[in-house]
Structures are given as C-alpha cells and as structure tokens.
Input
Amino acid sequence: MWTYNSANALEKSLPSIENAIESENVCHRIAVDGGSVDESRTILNRYGWTVKAAQRKGIPHQANEALAMVDTQFFAAFEHDIILNPKWFERTSRMIGSDDRTGAAQGLRLYAGSKTMQAFEEWMYRAKRIPIWSFSIDNTLFRTEAVKQAGGFPVEDPASADTILRKNLFKLGYRWLTDNTLLSGHYRKNFLEQFKHQVKSLELARYYWSSSPETSSVPRRFISLLGGNPKHVLNMALQSRMLRVPLAWYTLRLQRGLYLALARDTKTVKPVPMDDWYLTNFLRAVAISGKSLGGAGADREVDRFHSADRMCMWCGQRAEFVYSVPEGWENILPKLHPGIGPTFFACSDFHAGKIADKIFKDAFDYVAPSPPK
Ligand SMILES: [Zn+2]
Output
C-alpha cells in the first residue's frame, strides 16, 4: 500500500482488508508512506502494518519500494481508499492460481461514502457502461515474478502506472483478469474530495490517454466536453432520486474537459497502449478468418448471402472474400458499425483490415476478448 495523508480513508480500508484476508494468508503488511503529517502512520501501525518512509514520493515509486520488500510468490496491492469486498481474497486467489500465465487478478471498485459519487457509478455499473475488463492496481493480486519481469510499477507517467503495467504484462504473455461481479468500495468522503482528487490526477498525468484521437469528430468531442449524452445524466438523477447528481456530473465533466482542452503545451496525447496490442491481435484474427468467395474452395455457408450484398464494405467494389469477427471477441458484437454484421465482405485483405480497424475503433472505449471463465 502507498499512503499520503490517508488517515481518513485508512480507518475504512484497513479493517476491510483485515476482514477479507485471513491472517494465515498474510506474510507482511507493508505500507510506503510519502511523508504524511496526519495520523496515517499511527493507524497503519495499529492494524499491524510496517510503515516505511518513501525515498521518492509518488504512486509508482512508493509501490516499487514496497515491491522490493516482497518475498512471496504473490502480493496484493491496495490503495489507501479501498473498502475491500469480504470475498476479495477468496476469489482473486482462485483466479490467479488457476493458471501460471495469469499475472494479475482483481475485482471492480465503485465509489462509496459520497452519495453523489456512488449514484454515478451505480448507474454506470447497472447500465453496463463500466467495461468488464476494467483494471487498476488498487485492489489487485499480483504474481510477483510477472511484475518483476515487467520491470515493476512503471514510473513513466505517475497517473498511468496501471495502464502501462498492464501493457507490459500483456507483452510478456501474462493475462490480467477482472471479475466484474466482485465489487469493492472506493472511498470518497464527499463530492468536494472527488473534485480535488480529479484536479490532482489531471495535473499529475504526463499524458492524456486517448483510445483513438483521430476518429473522434469535433461535435462528438464537444458533446463529451459538455458531459456526454444528457439522457444518461437524467437517468442517473432519476434512479438515484438526487437532484444534485446532474450538477455534480457536469461539474466534474467540465472540469476534466476544460483541463484537457487547455493545458496541452506541456502534455501529450497517447493512445491507450492496450488498444494497440488488442488491435493487432484483432486484425490478425479477422485476416485469418478470410475465405475466398469464388473458386473451388468457396464455402457453402456463404451461399446463403444474396449475391447483391457481396460488395466490399470499404470501397463498394465487388467483394472477393468473406470475413468474420473472431470468436472470443463477442463483447464488440452489439457495437458493430451499421451495415457490418458479424460476417462481412471485402475486396481484399487490405480493405478487410480497414473495416476491422473501424469496427474496433467504433466500439465503446476499446475492445478486448472476453476473459476466460
Ligand atoms: Zn474494397
């Protein structure tokens, strides 16, 4: 755990961690503190945690100092504001132990404490707008060897240690599993705390991660800056029956939007690195699925398509091949581009690649294969 003036949250998180993990499964409880001037250290000691003063402040630096002290096959990383689900250890340890290529296993965390923040995320969770492959390093069980092989917690961008670590693990062939039914709390005392937290993390980030900057149009970006689809905000307010929800939502979105629109000079936009990794794999799988429409090898299954439909979805020329969205990528199917079904035609592998690229980038946020059960 990495802490900095965390007393308030620690009173919530430490007992929940103690409750979720039986002491026989714990070798060390290590906290690396970034120079707290509040009661953080006292509270940590009271719950049996060893507190080490950080040599360098910042999440990845503090996490790496803690990692250097790990001498077990697995370790858990928690942020100071996690209210851990009582079943967390039971379920994540089963996930990570099922296969030695699993490098990380975690659940989801949704805001707790602040009723407003809770209303946002409960709505998003119920509306399935939180991707099932969401990830973070704050309620996560890691395979020590995997993280060490990946070079530890990346220090490149302090606000994106999770994103970059996940990419690095993928590159080594490790999986990062998320059980999106294993819900923990993410403590925020009140809305103001979230407001301040967001400013800090925007300030901290060296990059703005963007899944596909070139495909998002100016009107779309404008709507997003103003808070996205107003229907969603209305639903949120109705479901939670709280009038302050829309105000809080637009305040946070505007804060973020303005910040991202203004402060570009010292910061850069980078595509989400998993996107590249996934996109490559997706394109490859689509290419492999290609079957010729003519000739002796033509598939019978193709016959059920009307010949008039056999046009390249990219250029409109006569199609030569049929492709399908590969198995295991089911989560993008409901988001396929209009006119493109799970099976589509193209004149060439090149244009099939263009279509697959568009399917991928039009999908909500970004896409990933369904995690193995
Ligand atoms: Zn074409």
In short: The pocket of zinc ion is lined by residues 312, 314-315, 317, 346-348, 351 (CB under 6 Å). The chain has two domains: 2-207, 273-362.
